[in-house]
Model the fold of this input.
Amino acid sequence: MRLGVRKISWPTREGAADEVIFALLDEEKERQLLLHQSGKTVSFQHNEVRLLPFAVSDVARALRHSLSFGARVGPTKHCRDIRMYDSYFHAVTADSVQLPDAQSAEVKSRVLQLCVTQPERTVVTWSGYVEYKSHKFIRLLEKTWVVLESIPMPATGGRTHGTLMRVVVRLTPVEAELDPQKPEDIVEMANVVVSTYQRHGQRMLQSMLEQLSDCMRTGTRI
Done:
């Protein structure tokens, strides 16, 4: 997998319009399958692999509806707005989180999810622009790559297929009132990054599993 070299100029001022953020996310939509690297900033990365007893097509559909499943959309829910297109969606999420240092933070994210189906695999990419408002402000660019591959299930002797799901999550600070040379600021940044992953990654996974479990219980499709 090659490295992308063109850098997006992300907003550095508070209150950038949703349209501006989505225009930038759309601009890099075609390049979301590429990993990006910069020697000038610190990136945080998480990797995991899961074996799911569901077909690739069902897992991909569950991921597509991970923010709109159930009653999660609306003024009082964390997903404030979502707009579906052919192979991707735009969404706006907003909620409050409690960081490990007991500081409360208001968090707003503008998200683009893109699904690309290939003969041998399905790739779902997630790109988010995350703003934390607390005693200090922090803005992160969140990138997630989810690769779904069909695999025979050992429990059925290979008669049915499940999904091997590989996930890579990378979070990169775009702007922050923190000094990367100070250990205490690095710890604070790490806390914010972990909280971001837990909020977005675990929420997406939980929604996906709830949808798949409901379909298995009722015998319906997503």
Observations:
- Helices lie at 18-27, 56-64, 183-218.
- Residues 183-218 form the longest helix (36 residues).
- The longest strand covers residues 137-152.
